[in-house]
Design a protein that fits this description.
823 residues; alpha+beta; eight-stranded mixed beta sheet; 28 helices; 28 strands
Length: 823
């Protein structure tokens, strides 16, 4: 959380900063933070007013030292560990209220000041025009505007100059201060009856600059507040309290006090306070605000639930598994904030330009005054007004806001759709992709394979085949292993213990069960260990191609068995004789004959390509298990959308090529774009090869996808995938829906388009209006009078509107944030 104290071993701090008024202010704070010994790097986001500080060594720098550095630079840090996000929201609201008061005072003084000042200049006040007290009244009206409304700018300018920095505050203070101070001697001289210093005063100019900049700043702050609405909406999902059962008593406690393994009671319609597992009850849960999935998700005993999602009509009892900063919501908020605090390469260029921009403007203002006073014979007063106009109109606020506001709004909109970018660089790389590589299992397919059929080797009991396969796989987290173990347990088979387990990535594993060596995995793994698989090779080819025909059906739910070729069923859990011993049944005769039997489960779609798992015991083949993983229903649509967008879409998998080609065809991927039989260790190398033709994105969800995700220009993880994959990825899709992928790429494209629009507008604004303020249009008689001699008040208005335009343009991205209908 912003302003929170990290753990002693946490290498990172997040701080909420108050008082930032331009990109150079953010740069000043960055320099102050990086000057603290022990700080490796610091990034300050002007739009979200946050700082992210990375320590060289955890525990070497305290939060107090960082706060002191920020305050020494003239800014402040909001909230502490005791305040958290609520304290930050209150502090931001107080800051906005303070701005509003200052602006109201400025308007109350500037309005009559403008009327009286202009009236005096154009001799519209009758006898008051020459009255000495009128000048003192103008000074009295201007003073509170400068001293109260303009106080933040004056303080900011003072701290900036002490730090040898040039910020917007310096330009505003110089412009307003010079106009005010140049007028004070005229008031004194007029009071003494002298007209040696001229007749004109510029109090209304000074006040108008401060007030109009304040109005623009107020509108900009309110608009920028909307930019962070996505984060606030996520934080608002957290329930304040939780109902728990402890020691047989039901208690209502603050949600922050829930402990891991607490039993949490969730009433119908209530928000779930922490992440956990359902231990009792059944309901549907609305996860739309976290994943973008609009349909409620059914939950029953054993299912995981996520904190901040909303329970449906059923009551649930859940066991808390993750609380506080470890919950999914807290991690999502942290990811989004990290992305918003990061800087794009173009922003670093903008920061460098802004750093030298203010000194250049100061020189231009001085040159403008000199030329108009000495060469154009316009008088010191007119020259001063032009110099002040240059100072005011050149404030680089729009330039500084161009990138960060678009990032804050764009990443917030993406989060509302369940799309999490790790940083701005990932957002930028996403729109540059030319090739997208999709993993098969869990990405193109559902990632929930089920057992379709058993093919025991001649003379092997199918029950023993399944029992030993499950025993070997019971400690594995691979989706195929889980499917085998689930099928065995559903059949009521007892699984013996295994030991000496050794997994070989991409091949299989070796273990010992009941004193025998078991090998389980791919056919290549078994043959490399000198196991003869020829008895089932032809059947395996048919299963991989989806052309196999079952010899019989196995029904795991029936309690009796009458297995006959092609028709009847057997129940694997019953206590039947050992068929491999040649007992006197038709079934045993069939299974022990030389022709391999393919025993299909009910409703198994053997016409779909099957993934095969082979099993051998003590070097002898026991058989194979066929598993099918259905294609995601949205996969073909997502692939078609990506291809229409001009991307080359490939499949990369360790599965058999026949299976991979069949699945790819269903998804609309040509066989030429299928890379099959790739070991996990070689997936990253395959990405390197593809990168020769341009930027490559990789989408995966498994542990073995981590290296390939890290190697790709853009690594994309499915939210349902392994934690390793998510940590290695640049982009995470919280919805297990491939349609989120083209949405994410479109979001990145539109966000970068808004960044370019903002930078273009800010650049044109400065390139065009600085010369106008300096008087470039004065010789052109056809030009409007207010442009030929641009008044500093109009310059202040133009500057404020330019910043507001950039912010409002960025806010257009919020319209992309609503979850798609029916997603």
């Amino acid at each position: 959380m912003l302003g929170s104290v990290p753990a002693a071993d946490d290498p990172e701090f997040e701080l909420a900063i108050a008082g930032l008024r331009c990109a150079n202010c953010a740069n000043t704070v960055e320099r102050a933070l990086t000057s603290v010994p022990g700080v490796a790097a610091a990034a300050v986001n002007f739009a979200s007013e946050t700082a992210r500080v990375h320590l060289a060594t955890p525990g070497t720098v305290t939060r107090g030292e960082l706060v002191a550095a920020v305050e020494a630079a003239g800014y402040s840090v909001i909230a502490g560990s005791e305040g958290g996000d609520d304290a930050e929201l209150l502090a931001r609201a107080a800051e906005l209220a303070s701005q509003r008061r200052r602006v109201l005072v400025g308007i109350a003084c500037t309005a009559p000041l403008m009327v009286l000042g202009m009236g005096r200049d154009f001799d519209l006040l009758g006898a008051w025009t020459a009255a000495p007290w009128l000048l003192w009244l103008l000074l009295a009206l201007a003073l509170p505007v400068l001293a109260y409304t303009g106080a933040p700018h004056l303080r900011g300018a003072w701290h900036a100059l002490k730090a040898r920095a040039a910020t917007m505050d310096v330009l505003i203070s110089l412009g307003a201060g010079v106009a005010f101070l140049a007028s004070v001697p005229v008031v004194v001289a007029e009071s003494l009856g002298s007209h040696a210093l001229g007749h004109h005063v510029h109090f209304e100019t000074s006040a108008a600059i401060i007030t109009l900049v304040g109005v623009g700043r107020l509108l900009e702050t309110r608009a920028r507040g909307q930019a962070g609405a996505a984060i606030r909406a996520l934080l608002a999902l957290r329930p304040a309290t939780a109902r728990v059962r402890r020691d047989g008593h039901e208690l209502e406690i603050p949600a922050a006090e829930v402990r891991v393994r607490d039993t949490v009671l969730v009433a119908p319609g209530a928000a779930i306070p922490v992440d956990g597992v359902v231990r009792s009850g059944a309901s549907e849960v609305d996860e739309s605000m976290l994943t973008g999935e609009s349909r409620p998700v059914g939950k029953t005993t054993g299912d995981p639930v996520t904190g901040a999602t909303v329970n449906g009509d059923g009551a649930l009892e859940i066991e808390a598994t993750r609380v506080g900063a470890a919950t999914a919501l807290a991690q999502i908020v942290r990811l989004v904030r990290a992305a918003q605090a990061s800087k794009a390469p173009v922003q670093r260029l903008v920061d460098r330009v802004a750093a030298v921009f203010v000194p250049v403007v100061l020189a231009l203002a001085g040159l403008t005054f000199t030329l108009w006073w000495l060469l154009a014979d316009q008088g010191a007063g007119a020259a001063l007004l032009r110099a002040v106009a240059v100072l005011v109109i050149a404030c680089p606020c729009a330039l500084g806001l161009a990138t960060p506001t678009a990032i804050v709004v764009g990443t917030g909109a993406a989060a509302r759709r369940g799309v999490l970018f790790k940083n701005m660089a990932a957002l930028e790389r996403a729109q540059a992709l030319r090739t997208l590589v999709l993993d098969k299992t869990g990405t193109l397919t559902r990632g929930r394979p089920t057992l379709s059929a058993l093919a025991p080797a001649p003379g092997v009991d199918p029950r023993e085949l399944l029992r030993l396969a499950a025993a070997a796989e019971q400690r594995s987290e691979h989706p195929l292993a889980r499917a085998i173990v689930t099928a065995a347990r559903d059949a009521g088979l007892e699984l013996p213990a295994s030991d000496n387990l050794r997994a070989v990535g991409g091949h299989g594993l070796r273990t010992r069960v009941g004193g025998h060596d078991l090998l389980i995995g791919s056919e290549r793994w078994l043959t490399s260990n000198h196991v003869d698989t020829t008895a089932l090779t032809a059947l395996a080819a048919d299963l991989s191609a989806g052309t196999a025909t079952a010899s019989a059906t196995i029904n795991l739910s029936q309690e009796t068995s009458n297995l006959s070729p092609g028709t009847a069923a057997t129940h694997l859990s019953q206590a039947t004789p050992d068929l491999s011993a040649g007992t006197s049944t038709a079934t045993a005769t069939h299974l022990s004959q030389a022709t391999p039997a393919l025993l299909a489960l009910p409703a198994a779609a053997l016409q779909a390509p099957q993934t095969l798992v082979w099993l051998a015991r003590d070097g002898a083949l026991l058989g194979l298990l066929a598993l099918a993983d259905a294609l995601r229903p949205e996969a073909a649509e997502a692939v078609a959308t990506l291809r229409r967008a001009g991307l080359r879409v490939l499949m990369l998998t360790g599965d058999h090529r026949q299976v991979a080609i069949a699945i790819a065809a269903q998804a609309g991927i040509p066989a030429a774009d299928v890379i099959a039989g790739v070991l996990p260790a070689d997936k990253a190398a395959a990405i390197v090869t593809l990168q020769r033709d341009g930027p490559v994105g990789m989408v995966g969800d498994g542990i073995n996808d981590g290296p390939a995700l890290a190697q790709a220009d853009l690594g994309v993880a499915m939210g349902s995938g392994a934690e390793v994959a998510i940590h290695a990825a640049d982009l995470t899709l919280m919805r297990s829906d491939l349609r989120g992928l083209p949405e994410a790429l479109e979001l990145s494209r539109r966000t970068l388009a808004v960044v370019r629009q903002n930078l273009l507008w800010a650049s044109i604004y400065n390139l065009v209006l600085i010369p106008v303020a300096a008087g470039a249009l004065y010789p052109i008689a056809a030009a409007p009078g207010f442009l030929r001699a641009l008044h500093p008040a109009l310059a202040a208005l133009a500057m404020a509107l330019s910043s507001l335009t950039v912010v409002l343009n960025s806010l257009r991205l919020r319209r992309l944030g609503a979850p798609p209908a029916g997603a």
